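ok so i was messing around last nite and threw this chain in just to see what happens. nothing serious, just curious
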Amino acid sequence: MNSITKAIAPLLQGLLILAMASLCSFALHTHKKPKDPLPPGCLEISPNLYGDQHEITNMAYREYLYYLKSLLGQHHPAFETALPDTSVFHALQTPTPPGFYTTYFSHADYAEHPVLGLSWEQAIAFSYWRSEMVFKQLLLKQKKLAPAWENTPLSISGYFTARMEGITLDTTLRIPWYSLPSPEDLLAMEKHSKAISNSQTSPLPNHCRSHGKKKGFYGLGDNVSEMTNSPGQAYGGNFLQGAASVADAPKSYEKPTVWLGFRNVCRWISWTEYRALQSKALNGED
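result:
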């Protein structure tokens, strides 16, 4: 090796290292995992944690009941078990407006009010159903399902395990997992909450709280107290008992009550994670 070669050898070696580093950086950049989309009905709280802007409404829950009724019939035990308990309204001394007892859940005037009279188990079942419906719409949008599947029931497990015509299996797909929030999730939402100052004798509809306003989480402090993933524990204030922070002590309940509602959080999970959650649920684990 002559003197010139010896002199430039370190420089060439440095350039080679820089070139390799640039190639690695490009490869990492081009293979960077894309950000998960915003789940329908949610706002982002933190990376891979999303929450409903409002409590689940009567209209949203009626869509769930319509699905069960269409699939199973109105006399099927699963449909009957899903119905709200309207007797909770008897706890109100002066319902407003008149007819509140009998029309709150079914009348169009209350479609965007929070659904009441549900148990923790009913809220969990709704959350499972919502995950199934959103995932199916994702499959149709990405053409993983033939159009003929649009009006045919298909569960998340069915997609990943069944081998049927019109299904394009993709085991890398992420699943939108809707669930009841933990107390910590509600606290994170409260940091971006919008006060509604409900002093009414009934919960306010979502159109009174957010249309034309900045995005945020409404009703955490004083519309209806909200269920969490811990059975029997609800957080936040409500129209009947007054405003309260999510950081305050939880409110206990044993059955459906007139001041109790819920909202969902959502995380994107893998098929493997979904199977683990299903296994825990079947074994009665938290």
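not much to say yet. The longest helix spans residues 3-30.
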